[in-house]
User: Fold these one by one.
Assistant:
Number 1:
Amino acid sequence: MARIDMEDRNRFVPAVVPPAEREEAALWFAFLGNQLLVHLDSDSVRLPYLGDFSELGLPHQGQHYLGQFDGHACYAVDLPEGTAAPPGMGYEGLRRIYGRLEEALFWLAGRAVQIVEWDRTHRFCGRCGVPLKTRPQERAKECPQCGFLHFPRLAPAVIVLVERGNQLLMARSRHFAQGVYSVLAGFVEPGETLEEAVEREVFEEVGIKVKDIRYFGSQPWPFPHSLMIGFTAQYAGGEIKINHEELEDAGWYTADRLPGQPGKISIARRLVEWFLAKQGRSSLPS
Ligand SMILES: [Zn+2]
C-alpha cells in the first residue's frame, strides 16, 4: 500500500545533467499546460519512447533531463499552447491517468510537471526583473545581474489523522466530490514547525486540541506543487466546531461506519487504511 515501494524507488535515479551520449531511446514527459501527452491504448496509457522528441514533429521548449528510470533516460518538455496531439495520442490530466500508467511512472510524471511549471513561471528575476539563466549542474536558475538563485517551488502541507479511542476525525470540504470525506490538511506557514502546523490546522478547522503528534509518511502532491507530510495525532480536548469557511461537515467515525473515502492516489487513504488495520479491520475496497 506504500506510495512507491522500495523496489520502485530504486528504479529511478534522479539527475540534472543529461548523459553526453545516449544510444537507447528515452521516455518523454511532454506537457501542454498540466496535461501529459500520452499514447492512448484501450485501458492504459503509454509515454512516448523516442530517441529525440523532435521525432514526433511537435514544437517544444525547455527540455529538462530528469534522470534514469530502469536505465532509460527521462526528459520533461513544455509544449506551446495549441499544440495538437499526433494520431493515436492525446493529452490527459495527471489525476485521470492514475491507475492507467505504471505507478512509479505516474509519480515521475508528477515530478516532471512541477519542473516544467517551475521553468514556465520563473523566467525573470523576482528581485530585479532580468531574464534568468538556467544553472547547468543543478535544478536552479540564476539571475545574471544580481546573482539571486531560484529553485523549484514546493509548498509543504501537513495532513493528519486524529484518533479518539476507536474513532477517527473525518471532514469534508465543499470542493470534494459528493459524499467524500477525508482527514484534515493544510499548508505550513512561514516560521512554523510541522507539529505546530498540525495543531493550528486542526484547531482552526474544527476547534479541537490534539497531542502525541507522530510522523506517518510523506507524499509529493503535484497539484500543483505540494509536499504532503502525514501525521497521526490523539484527541486532547474540545468539541467539534466546524469552520464553515473551510469545511462543510466534520465528525467522529468508527471503522465500521466510515463515510465516502478519498481516492487511492492520496496519502489520506493510506492514513485511513492504517487506522483500519489498527482496529483489526480489513482494508477499504479499491
Ligand atoms: Zn536579479
Number 2:
Amino acid sequence: MSRKVAGPEIEQLIQLLARLPGLGPRSSRRAVLAMIRRREMLLEPLSLALDDVAQNVRECPECGNIATGELCGICASPRGSATEICVVETVADLWAMERGGAFSGRYHVLGGVLSALDAVGPEALRIPELIARADDGAASEVILALNATIDGQTTAHYIAEQLEPLDISVTSLAKGVPVGGELDYLDDGTIGAALLARRAF
Ligand SMILES: [Zn+2]
C-alpha cells in the first residue's frame, strides 16, 4: 500500500480538481502545489472566489445563461439589441458566440437538444420559455445557432415550427458550422462569418 504524501485535506483537493475537464491527477497535483506555494496570491483569493460563486451562481431567468445577480450580464446590459434572440444549446455555446463578438443581440440557452434516444422532450428544455419570449413583441428575429448534429437540427426544425404562427423571422447560422461540430470548438472568426451569412430557416 502506497503512503499518502500529503494530508487528507490536500488529497481530497487533488481528487476534486482531477475531476475537472482538462485536468487529470497529474496536472491536479501540480495545480495544488502551485496554489500552496502561492498561498496569498492564489490559494486564498481562489478559495474566496469559489465560495462566492458557489453561494451566488444561478440561472438567468430570462436567457438561461449563468448569472450571479438577478439577471445575467448580457440581459442586464443596456447595450445591444433586444430584437434579435440567438438560440444556443449550452452556456458554453453562448460564451463562444459572445467571444466571436459579431452578435449584439440577446441569447436563449436551451440546456440541451431534443433526443428520442435519451427521452429529452421539449418540456425538458427551455423551449416554452423561448416561444413566450418570441411572442412578447420585443423580438423580430430568432437566430437558430444549434450544432449541426442530427439532434441539433431536429430541435431547430421543432422550434421553427413552434415559431411559425408568430410574425417573426427565423434564421439559422450559415454552413460555417461543421457537421457534428460544436460552437465552442469553432474559432471566433468562423462563428462571426456563419452569423453574418445566416439565412432564413
Ligand atoms: Zn440572461
